[in-house]
Design brief:
Number of domains: 1
CATH superfamily: P-loop containing nucleotide triphosphate hydrolases
Bound molecules: thymidine-5'-diphosphate
CATH class: Alpha Beta
Largest sheet: 5 strands, parallel
Helix content: 55-70%
Number of helices: 8
Shape: globular
CATH topology: Rossmann fold
Distance between the termini: 15 Å
C-alpha cells in the first residue's frame, strides 16, 4: 500500500503524517515514512537545487527536476520498501507536480503526466489531500525559519495550486481522500483518522 499526502503550504501536512504513521503502527503495520522532493541520496541533492532561493529556473526545468528526483526516490527507496511489505507514506508525490507545475505554473496536466510517466507509471493507492486556506497557510509557511523558493511565490500562485488540486480530486475520485484543514490541528487529525478507520478497520 502506497499512500501520499498533498496540500498547500503550511497546511499541517508534516504533523498530520506523523499521526497517521502512529495510527498504522498501532495496527502492527510495518510503516515507512518518506518525502518529496528528496528521500534518497541523489534526490536530496536535486531537492537542494530546486528549492534554493538563488535558483531562478524555467517552469520546464523545475518540472523535469521534480520528475528526476521522483524516479530516483521511487526506484531506490519506495519500490524496495513496498516489495519488503512496508506501508509507504510519502509527503507529496506526483500530484504536487500536477498542481504546482502542471496547473499553477501553466505547463498543463498532460505534459507533466507525460514526463512523469516516462520516469514511472506507479501511482499511489490513496492520496490524502488537506483542504486548507492558502492565505492562512502561506502566512504560517513564511514565518518558518527557512522559507524556500516555492513558499515565496505569490498568494495568487498558491490559490492556483489549490484550484489545481480541486481538479485532481474530480479526476481521481477513487484515490483521493479529502480532509478538512480549515479548523484546528486536532480537528484535522480527528477527521483524517475517522476517514482512515472507515477504509482500513
Ligand atoms: P517542502 O519544504 O518540502 O514543502 P512542504 O512542507 O510544503 O511540503 O518544499 C517542497 C516544495 O516543493 C513545496 O512548495 C511544494 C513543491 N513541489 C512542487 O512544486 N512539485 C513537486 O512535484 C513536489 C514534490 C513539490
Amino acid at each position: 500500500m502506497f499512500i501520499t499526502f498533498e496540500g498547500g503550504e503550511g497546511s499541517g501536512k508534516t504533523s498530520l503524517i506523523k499521526e497517521v504513521e502512529s495510527f498504522f503502527k498501532k495496527q502492527n503495520k510495518k510503516v515507512f515514512l518518506t518525502r518529496e522532493p528528496g528521500g534518497s541520496f541523489v534526490a536530496e541533492q536535486i531537492r537542494n537545487i530546486i528549492l534554493d532561493n538563488k535558483n531562478e529556473m524555467s517552469p520546464k526545468t523545475e518540472a523535469l527536476l521534480f520528475a528526476a528526483s521522483r524516479v530516483e526516490h521511487l526506484e531506490t527507496v519506495i519500490l524496495k520498501k513496498l516489495a519488503e511489505g512496508y506501508l509507504v507514506l510519502c509527503d507529496r508525490f506526483i500530484d504536487s507536480s500536477l498542481a504546482y507545475q502542471g496547473y499553477a505554473r501553466g505547463l498543463g496536466f498532460e505534459e507533466v503526466l507525460k514526463i512523469n510517466h516516462f520516469a514511472s507509471k506507479n501511482m499511489p493507492d490513496y492520496t490524502i489531500y488537506i483542504d486548507s486556506d492558502p492565505q492562512e497557510g502561506l502566512k504560517r509557511a513564511l514565518k518558518r525559519e527557512k522559507a524556500n523558493r516555492l513558499d515565496k511565490e505569490s498568494l495568487l500562485f498558491h490559490e492556483k495550486v489549490k484550484a489545481g488540486y480541486q481538479i485532481l480530486i474530480k479526476k481521481y475520485p477513487q484515490r483521493y481522500l479529502v480532509v478538512n484543514g480549515q479548523g484546528t490541528m486536532e480537528e484535522l487529525i480527528a477527521d483524517t483518522l475517522m476517514k482512515l478507520k472507515e477504509i482500513f478497520l
